[in-house]
Design brief:
This protein is of the alpha/beta class. The chain is built from 16 helices and 17 strands. It comes from Amycolatopsis cihanbeyliensis.
Length: 422
């Protein structure tokens, strides 16, 4: 088996790097990949990221560049913008942010001043670093106020969001995060933001593909600013976008360039355009719904095996599992699962008494396994492997982990991976 597209020139020029790429491709092929922020891109997206577009520097925007020779690049970026607007029904799109964190920083630069109050979800409850957490620049340069989830339900406490917004009158309110297994109520957030005069920023980095495929409600029409990465459920390259209404679009563009970045990564822009084109197809719509079906089936199977799921289940691609009742921390469990051929990440859970680098939970996502073709009927077996691996980790049974890894490898042999072929 070998990486696709082929790497003959790379192999000849730098066999050491080529060998590492091949090893990584094989690793991705052989593992049940349940990291919620990862996916497999198509070979078309892979090809786009490796084109001569990487040679071109293009500060500015189409028709308004600071370098000559933009005749083709302008067409590439315009196509990506048009596809983003059409796919999400947005009035404005910026496809230049290098990743999700700069995309969120652009919202701060566009609509807030240092020291302004921002309201975001607390990191341990499922929020993101750039929503005002203390170790982030956003928590150091702004005055962060944090909301969380209800202890009894594990769901966002909208009463708390409203109370905090009325009390602190934030300039920005962030809705969304990195470990939210339930539907985000964008209309409710919009009502709160309107009441206090805040700009609502919907961070849909995790659920953008589900939104595009109609498997999660859209924030368009509720949040005037929407940030997202382009990988995860959207199944594109490592990049980002910002969607906005017409009123807020110009400020966003100025914040991205020249406010935060220089020239965009044109090869990534092309790959984003390819992924957006794929996401506009009926097949992708089926995929988005299949991601949710798989997540719900996996959640049900884990619950039957006695696992404690934050909020009791999932509405999207993501599951957050509290392992306290299993007598093991999230970190040793995640490391043992990796040895067993099941790749996921350890994660804090709401009201976690343990430290962030050694938390109580694990986070799972079904985007990658759905791309490989796994279906709801496979999820009980995945839950069995997870259960057996967690039990083996608690008892130090390495042979049991090796047996699981062999079973995983046997199953995955029947499900091809984009980018790696026999």
């Amino acid at each position: 088996m070998t990486h696709q597209p082929g790497m003959s020139a790379l192999t000849a020029a730098d066999p050491e790097i080529a060998g590492l790429v091949e090893r990584e491709a094989r690793r991705q092929h052989d593992k049940i990949r349940l990291i919620a922020s990862e996916n497999y891109v198509s070979e078309a997206v892979l090809e786009a990221t490796g084109t001569v577009l990487t040679n071109k520097y293009s500060e500015g925007y189409p028709g308004r560049r600071y370098y000559e020779g933009q005749q083709v690049i302008d067409q590439v970026e315009r196509l990506a913008v048009q596809r983003a607007k059409a796919l999400f029904g947005a009035e404005h799109a910026n496809v230049q942010p290098y990743s999700g964190s700069p995309a969120n920083l652009a919202a701060y630069l566009a609509f807030a001043k240092p020291g302004d109050t921002v309201l975001g979800m607390a990191l341990p409850d499922g929020g993101h670093l750039t929503h005002g957490w203390s170790v982030s620049a956003t928590g150091k340069w702004f005055d962060p106020v944090r909301y969380g989830v209800r202890k009894e339900t594990g769901r966002v406490d909208l009463d708390q969001v409203r109370d905090l917004a009325r009390r602190h009158r934030p300039t920005l309110i962030f809705a969304g995060g990195t470990a939210i297994p339930r539907t985000i109520d964008f209309p409710a957030f919009a009502e709160i933001a309107r009441e206090v005069g805040a700009v609502l920023v919907a961070d849909i980095a995790h659920i953008a593909g589900l939104v595009a495929g109609g498997a999660h409600p859209s924030p368009v029409g509720y949040a005037p600013v929407i940030t997202t990465t382009t990988h995860k459920t959207l199944r594109g390259p490592r990049g980002a976008m910002i969607l906005a209404d017409a009123e807020h679009g110009k400020a966003i563009d100025k914040a991205v360039f020249p406010g935060l970045q220089g020239g965009p990564h044109n090869h990534t822009t092309a790959a984003i355009a390819v992924a957006l084109g794929e996401a506009a197809t009926p097949e992708f719509r089926d995929y988005a719904h299949a991601v949710v079906d798989n997540a719900r089936a996996l959640a049900e199977a884990l619950l039957e095996r006695g696992f404690d799921l934050v909020s009791g289940g999932t509405d999207n691609h993501l599951l957050l599992v509290d392992l306290t009742g299993k007598g093991i921390g999230g970190k040793p469990a995640a490391q043992a699962l990796d040895r067993a051929g099941v790749e996921l990440n350890y994660n804090t859970v709401p009201f976690d008494p343990r430290k962030p680098f050694d938390p109580s939970g694990i986070r799972l996502g079904t985007s990658s396994i759905t791309t490989r073709g796994l279906r709801p009927e496979h999820q009980p077996r995945l839950a069995e492997w997870i259960d057996r691996a967690v039990t083996a980790a608690a008892s130090g049974d390495e042979q049991a982990l090796e047996r699981i890894a062999a079973e995983v490898h046997e199953l995955l042999a029947a499900y091809p991976m984009p980018g790696y072929r026999a």
